[in-house]
Automatic annotation (TrEMBL):
One of its GO terms (molecular function) is DNA binding. It is found in: Nucleus. It holds the Pfam family DDE_1. It comes from the Eukaryota. One of its GO terms (cellular component) is nucleus. InterPro entries: CenT-Element_Derived (IPR050863), DDE_SF_endonuclease_dom (IPR004875), Homeodomain-like_sf (IPR009057), RNaseH_sf (IPR036397). The lineage of its organism: Eukaryota, Metazoa, Ecdysozoa, Arthropoda, Hexapoda. This is DDE-1 domain-containing protein. Residues 455-479 are annotated as: Disordered. Residues 209-345 form the DDE-1 domain. Residues 466-479 have a biased composition (Polar residues).
Length: 593
C-alpha cells in the first residue's frame, strides 16, 4: 500500500473522531456552547461546525467510492456468510468478486485495471468496515468434517434423546484422548525493526504424552489416565502427578483396546459404582476403534451404563471436551512448560512430566475454571441440557442464508446473490475425487545401487538381468519392429541353422559369451529381435536388437530407451520364441530351459 506524504502547507483534514464531532454538534444545537467555545474545546474549525449544524456540504471529501453504500453492505454480509459456511475469502478473492460484480452489471471503473480493484482499495474497504471485518489466520478442517449436515445431527439427537432419558447430569460422562506435547509454541517478541529471522533460545521437541480425560455434565473432572510411549514403566514416571492419576505405557504412545479396558475398569467403573445399580448412566465418546471394546460394552450392560458414540467426524461440534475443555488446558500447559524450560535444558523427561502436568491442571482449576469449562462444553454441544439447536446453528446452509442475508430490494441485491453463488460454485465448491492407491510391488535393489522409474530406464543394469553389454556387441542405431504374439518355443537343431529358418521381426534366443577375458566368463542366453539378415557375409550374420528384463519381473522384457544392437552368426541362435505382447511394448517370454 502506498504511503502518502502530506504536502507542507497543505489544507488540514479531519483529525478528530466522529464521536467528538457528534458531541460538539449536539451541544451547539442545544445552545449549551457557542461556536467559538466549541472550536477551542474540541479543536474543530468554526466553519466545519457551522456546516455540520446547518447540514451543508455533508458529503465526504474526495472522489465517491466505486461501490454504493448498499452494495458494500451486501458485500460485507456475503463475506461474513461465506466465512461462516467454511469458505472464507482472501483479499484477492474479494477483489475478483468485485470485478465479477462490476462486469456483470456493465460498470466500467477507470481507476481499476480491467475492473479489478487494487490492494489499496481492499485496505480502504477493510478500514471502512473495521467494526465488522478483520484479517485473521484461518484454521483448516478436513472435508470429512465439513460434510456434517443437519440431517445427520438431527438423527443423532433423536437417538441421544432416548439414550439420555432419565440420566442425571452427574452420571453423564464424556471421555476423550488428547496429546500433550513438549513444545511451548511460538510467542511474539520485541526485537529490532527489520529483523527477518527473530529467534528465541528454547529447547523443544516433537515428543508427546497421551492423556485420557473424562468429565461429567455436572462439572466433575475424573482423574486423568496417562500413557507413555515406552516398552516398560518405571516408578519415577508416576510420582508427583495429579491425585488419582493412572499411568501406563504402549509401543505407539496412544490408547489401544487393552489400555481402554484398564482405564474403564480403574477409573470409570469405580465412579459409577458409587451410585445405585438401577439408576441409568451414560458414557459418551468418539467412535475411534481403540476407544471401543467388546468387554467394556458387556460391562456397560451389566452396570446399566448406556454406551453412546458420537457421529463420525463431528467431535469439533459434539464433543464437550474438544469444544470447551482442551483449549484452555493446552494454554495453561504451554505456560507451565515454558516456565519449566526457562530453568532447565533439553526435553522434559518422563520423570518430571507428572509434576509439570499437575501444575498445569492446578492453574486450570483456579476459580474452579475446569468445572465451569466442562459445564459449558456440555451446554455448547447440546447434550445437557438437551438442545439440538446448539449444534445446528453452527452448520450453515448457503442457499437459504444467502437470500436472507443479502438485501434484494434493489436490482444490485439480486446481482450480489448471483455473484456470490457463481463465485463459490466455480472457485470454491468444486467436486473433489479421492485418490486411489495404486497397487505397488516391492523392488529388490542390490546394496549400493539406485533405480529410476520404468519410463526413464536406460540400458544401465539396475538389477541382475540377462542383458549383453555393448562392450561385447557392436552398437549401431536401428528402428524397432513389432510381431504378433504366439505362446510357444521352437528349438532349432544343428541341421536347421539356415537363413531360411529366420525372418525379420522374429524373436530369438542368442547364446553368447559373457564377461570375456574375466574370471566370470561364460555363455548366457539373451532375448532379442531380428532387425536384418546379411546373406552376403560369410558366415551369414543376423542383426539383433536385444531386450532387457523389466523392473520387478522375471519373465517380462522390454526394449531399453538406448537401443542395444549387435551382430551374431546363425549358429549362435538356439531358439525362436513367440512372446505374449503387453502394453507399452512389453513382452512375456516362455521358459527356454
Amino acid at each position: 500500500m502506498a504511503k502518502y506524504v502530506k504536502k507542507v502547507g497543505g489544507r488540514p483534514y479531519q483529525n478528530y473522531s466522529e464521536e467528538t464531532l457528534k458531541k460538539a454538534v449536539m451541544e451547539l444545537k442545544t445552545k449549551k456552547i457557542t461556536f467559538r467555545d466549541a472550536e477551542k474545546k474540541y479543536r474543530i474549525s468554526k466553519s466545519t461546525l457551522q456546516r455540520k449544524v446547518n447540514n451543508k456540504n455533508t458529503m465526504k471529501v474526495g472522489r465517491p467510492n466505486t461501490l454504493s453504500e448498499k452494495d458494500e453492505e451486501n458485500l460485507v454480509k456475503g463475506i461474513c456468510l461465506s466465512s461462516k459456511w467454511g469458505f472464507p475469502f482472501t483479499s484477492m478473492d474479494i477483489r475478483l468478486l468485485v470485478q465479477q460484480f462490476l462486469n456483470k452489471n456493465g460498470f466500467k471503473e477507470k481507476r481499476f485495471t480491467n475492473n479489478l480493484p487494487g490492494y489499496e482499495w481492499f485496505k480502504h474497504f477493510l478500514d471502512r468496515h473495521k467494526s465488522i471485518l478483520s484479517e485473521r489466520l484461518a484454521e483448516n478442517i478436513k472435508r470429512s468434517r465439513a460434510e456434517i449436515n443437519h440431517e445427520s445431527i438431527k438423527k443423532y439427537f433423536e437417538h441421544l434423546k432416548n439414550s439420555l432419558a432419565g440420566v442425571s447430569a452427574n452420571l453423564i460422562i464424556n471421555y476423550d484422548e488428547t496429546n500433550i506435547t513438549d513444545d511451548p509454541g511460538k510467542a511474539k517478541i520485541i526485537t529490532r525493526r527489520g529483523c527477518k529471522h527473530p529467534e528465541r533460545i528454547l529447547d523443544s521437541s516433537k515428543s508427546s504424552v497421551s492423556v485420557m480425560f473424562a468429565g461429567t455434565a455436572s462439572g466433575y473432572l475424573l482423574p486423568p489416565y496417562v500413557v507413555y510411549k515406552a516398552e516398560n514403566l518405571y516408578d519415577s514416571w508416576t510420582e508427583g502427578g495429579p491425585k488419582g492419576t493412572r499411568y501406563n505405557r504402549s509401543k505407539s504412545g496412544w490408547f489401544d483396546g487393552v489400555l481402554f479396558e484398564d482405564w474403564f475398569n480403574k477409573l470409570i467403573l469405580p465412579y459409577y459404582k458409587k451410585f445405585p445399580a438401577d439408576i441409568p448412566k451414560a458414557m459418551i465418546g468418539d467412535n475411534l476403534a481403540s476407544h471401543i471394546s467388546l468387554a467394556v460394552i458387556e460391562k456397560c450392560k451389566e452396570y446399566n451404563i448406556r454406551f453412546i458414540l458420537l457421529p463420525p467426524n463431528s467431535t469439533h461440534l459434539c464433543q464437550p471436551l474438544d469444544v470447551a475443555f482442551f483449549r484452555p488446558l493446552k494454554i495453561h500447559w504451554r505456560k507451565t512448560l515454558l516456565a519449566y524450560k526457562n530453568k532447565h535444558r533439553g526435553s522434559i523427561p518422563k520423570t518430571e512430566f507428572p509434576r509439570v502436568f499437575k501444575n498445569a491442571l492446578d492453574r486450570l482449576n483456579i476459580d474452579n475454571c475446569a468445572s465451569k469449562n466442562l459445564i459449558s462444553g456440555f451446554k455448547a454441544t447440546g447434550i445437557y441440557p438437551l438442545d439440538e439447536n446448539m449444534v445446528l446453528c453452527k452448520i450453515p446452509t448457503l442457499s437459504r442464508h444467502l437470500n436472507e442475508s443479502i438485501s434484494t430490494s434493489e436490482d444490485t441485491g439480486t446481482s450480489w446473490c448471483e455473484t456470490f453463488e457463481n463465485f463459490l460454485s466455480e472457485s470454491r465448491v468444486k467436486e473433489t475425487s479421492n485418490l486411489r492407491k495404486n497397487l505397488r510391488k516391492k523392488l529388490s535393489v542390490q546394496p549400493g545401487k539406485s533405480i529410476t522409474s520404468k519410463a526413464d530406464l536406460s540400458d544401465e543394469e539396475d538389477f541382475d538381468i540377462n542383458q549383453p553389454s555393448t562392450s561385447s556387441l557392436n552398437a549401431v542405431s536401428n528402428t524397432p519392429s513389432t510381431l504378433k504374439s504366439r505362446k510357444m518355443v521352437k528349438s532349432l537343431s544343428t541341421q536347421e541353422f539356415s537363413v531360411s529358418g529366420f525372418c525379420k521381426g522374429d524373436f530369438v534366443v542368442a547364446r553368447l559369451l559373457y564377461n570375456v577375458n574375466t574370471s566370470k566368463e561364460g555363455i548366457k542366453k539373451f532375448y532379442a529381435q531380428i532387425e536384418d539378415i546379411d546373406e552376403n557375409s560369410d558366415p551369414i550374420q543376423l542383426k539383433l536388437k536385444y531386450l532387457k528384463q523389466s523392473v520387478g519381473s522375471r519373465d517380462i522384457y522390454t526394449f531399453p530407451l538406448i537401443e542395444n544392437i549387435g551382430y551374431v552368426t546363425v549358429d549362435q541362435i538356439s531358439d525362436i520364441v513367440y512372446p505374449g505382447v503387453f502394453k507399452r511394448n512389453r513382452y512375456k517370454f516362455p521358459s527356454t530351459d
